[in-house]
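My main concern about presentation is that the manuscript never shows what a single data entry looks like. The format is easy to grasp once an entry is in front of the reader. For illustration, here is how one protein appears when written out as sequence plus structure tokens:
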Amino acid sequence: MMQDEASYFCDSCGEEIVVPIDLSAGDEQTYVEDCPVCCRPMVIHVAVDDDGEISVWGESE
């Protein structure tokens, strides 16, 4: 069963941020989104491995 959301920790404020997962854009995605807590831009990475495990991580832009 595929996840519909995942989380990462903001590099700037340390808060855990939950993001929706939409794999219609592919198994590897990178996009920029402002942290909803501190409003700093984050580069969000989404990757799905061969077993269907989803990894999400963010890094400061």
